């Protein structure tokens, strides 16, 4: 183990501007683990510890030797000579939590524009969208398909243990950084990940890692990043590609949310929801609104969207819900959506007086609960079948799914069209 910061450092920030107990366990990042009142994770070649009181965030970092830093999945850079002791952790945290944004002003704006947000926001202040490494966000959200927070966290932990570089040990616990694309692109990885319980996601992870190495130029993911949101560890964004669809638009090849979303859809295991998760939490596009079953519940219950029989969402439905919230909340719609998403999780429902949370997800735990192998296999088979339905958007014996093609300007009305056509087909059957 290399240098360990002996003292906690203080970063003044109130709970209204940042609440780590909510932000770190609401389904954004899956590698933070809590030990008593302390959160820990590896981040950019260091083992980082955080805790918080009402007025300040406290942090300390354990730095491994330079060889371990060089093996890290993040791009290594020297620690700043301008920072105390050469420790640039404060600068990293300011970018990672995007503390330059005035969160209270954003909450005030969303509360003025939306009565439902105004009702729930007071119990969920301080929720920020993390500025994460794009590759880590991509892999973790591929794991999120038909999954819950607890299980995704276990998968992320397994990826680090088996394929990430070891950075050191704190209080008897080994810490590994997130694996690089090269570490996950080897042919043997898929079989091993299946043995570890990843199911069909193993294939998508390996295929995406191979595509990143063999088909995409260096820095391709960062070329899709919002220029207003540079990576948290301070390296400069690579110049946008001069040709090709990755960043092609009419604005001097400056990347946009739409082009980032479309390019992410070309990767294995990435549908509209995963693409928006990566765009929002890995590439800094605040207008990205991931639509999953929980967000759909919110749209139906609180924003008068009509229910549909199928659990499979077409891209038309995804776009309709996302566009509605973008029109309502503005350029940081994804941030506002994360507040209501958190309020809808069962693990946070006690914070709402009415107990409105409906999710069955569990929060991140430092221990894995054993599961019957036979039940796990049966669940994985069911998930694989559901994933095939979702990927192909086709019909099955038990359920019919109607696909509706819409133009860009079709918004909320597409949901009613889906409902109507589905009902007609059932009557004819």
From TrEMBL:
<dbReference type="InterPro" id="IPR011257">
    <property type="entry name" value="DNA_glycosylase"/>
</dbReference>
<dbReference type="InterPro" id="IPR023170">
    <property type="entry name" value="HhH_base_excis_C"/>
</dbReference>
<keyword id="KW-0456">Lyase</keyword>
<dbReference type="GO" id="GO:0140078">
    <property type="term" value="F:class I DNA-(apurinic or apyrimidinic site) endonuclease activity"/>
</dbReference>
<protein>
    <recommendedName>
        <fullName>DNA-(apurinic or apyrimidinic site) lyase</fullName>
        <ecNumber>4.2.99.18</ecNumber>
    </recommendedName>
</protein>
<keyword id="KW-0511">Multifunctional enzyme</keyword>
<dbReference type="InterPro" id="IPR003265">
    <property type="entry name" value="HhH-GPD_domain"/>
</dbReference>
<feature type="compositionally biased region" description="Basic and acidic residues">
    <location>
        <begin position="353"/>
        <end position="364"/>
    </location>
</feature>
<feature type="compositionally biased region" description="Low complexity">
    <location>
        <begin position="365"/>
        <end position="375"/>
    </location>
</feature>
<dbReference type="Pfam" id="PF00730">
    <property type="entry name" value="HhH-GPD"/>
</dbReference>
<keyword id="KW-0378">Hydrolase</keyword>
<dbReference type="InterPro" id="IPR052054">
    <property type="entry name" value="Oxidative_DNA_repair_enzyme"/>
</dbReference>
<keyword id="KW-0227">DNA damage</keyword>
<feature type="domain" description="HhH-GPD">
    <location>
        <begin position="143"/>
        <end position="338"/>
    </location>
</feature>
<dbReference type="InterPro" id="IPR012904">
    <property type="entry name" value="OGG_N"/>
</dbReference>
<keyword id="KW-0234">DNA repair</keyword>
<dbReference type="Pfam" id="PF07934">
    <property type="entry name" value="OGG_N"/>
</dbReference>
<feature type="region of interest" description="Disordered">
    <location>
        <begin position="352"/>
        <end position="381"/>
    </location>
</feature>
<comment type="similarity">
    <text>Belongs to the type-1 OGG1 family.</text>
</comment>
<keyword id="KW-0326">Glycosidase</keyword>
């Amino acid at each position: 183990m290399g240098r360990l910061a002996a003292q906690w450092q203080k970063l003044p920030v109130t709970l209204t501007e940042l609440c780590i107990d909510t932000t770190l366990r609401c389904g954004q990042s899956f590698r933070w683990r809590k030990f008593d009142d302390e959160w820990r994770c590896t981040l950019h070649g260091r083992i980082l510890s955080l805790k918080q009181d009402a007025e300040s965030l406290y942090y300390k970092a354990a730095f491994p030797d330079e060889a371990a830093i060089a093996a890290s999945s993040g791009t290594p850079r020297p620690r700043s000579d301008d920072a105390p002791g050469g420790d640039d952790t404060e600068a990293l945290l300011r970018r990672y939590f995007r503390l330059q944004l005035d969160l209270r002003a954003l909450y005030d704006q969303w509360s003025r524009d939306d009565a439902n947000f105004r009702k729930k926001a007071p119990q969920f202040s301080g929720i920020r969208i993390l500025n994460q490494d794009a590759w880590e966000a991509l892999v973790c959200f591929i794991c999120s398909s038909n999954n819950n927070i607890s299980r995704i966290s276990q998968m992320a932990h397994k990826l680090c243990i088996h394929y990430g570089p070891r950075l050191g040990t704190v209080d008897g616990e080994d810490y590994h950084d997130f694996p690089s694309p090269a570490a996950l692109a080897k042919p043997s990885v898929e079989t091993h990940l299946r043995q570890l319980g990843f199911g069909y996601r193993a294939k998508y992870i390996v295929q995406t890692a191979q595509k990143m190495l063999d088909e995409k130029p260096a820095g391709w993911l960062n070329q899709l990043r919002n220029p207003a949101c540079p990576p948290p560890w301070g390296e400069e964004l690579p110049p946008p590609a001069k040709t090709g669809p990755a960043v092609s638009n009419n604005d001097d090849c400056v990347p946009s949310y739409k082009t980032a979303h479309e390019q992410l859809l070309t990767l294995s295991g990435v549908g509209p929801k995963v693409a928006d998760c990566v765009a929002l939490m890995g590439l800094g596009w605040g207008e990205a609104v991931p639509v999953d079953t929980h967000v759909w519940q919110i749209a139906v219950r609180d924003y008068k969207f009509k229910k549909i029989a199928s659990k499979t969402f077409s891209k038309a439905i995804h776009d309709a819900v996302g566009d509605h919230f973008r029109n309502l909340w503005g350029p940081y719609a994804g941030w506002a959506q994360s507040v209501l998403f958190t309020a809808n999780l069962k693990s946070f429902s006690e914070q709402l007086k009415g107990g409105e949370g409906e999710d069955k997800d569990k929060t991140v735990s430092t221990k894995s609960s054993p599961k019957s192998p036979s039940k796990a296999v049966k669940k994985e088979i069911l998930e694989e079948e559901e994933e095939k339905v979702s990927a192909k958007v086709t019909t099955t014996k038990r359920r019919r799914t109607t696909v509706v093609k819409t133009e860009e300007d079709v918004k909320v009305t597409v949901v009613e069209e889906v409902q109507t056509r589905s009902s007609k087909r059932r009557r004819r059957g």
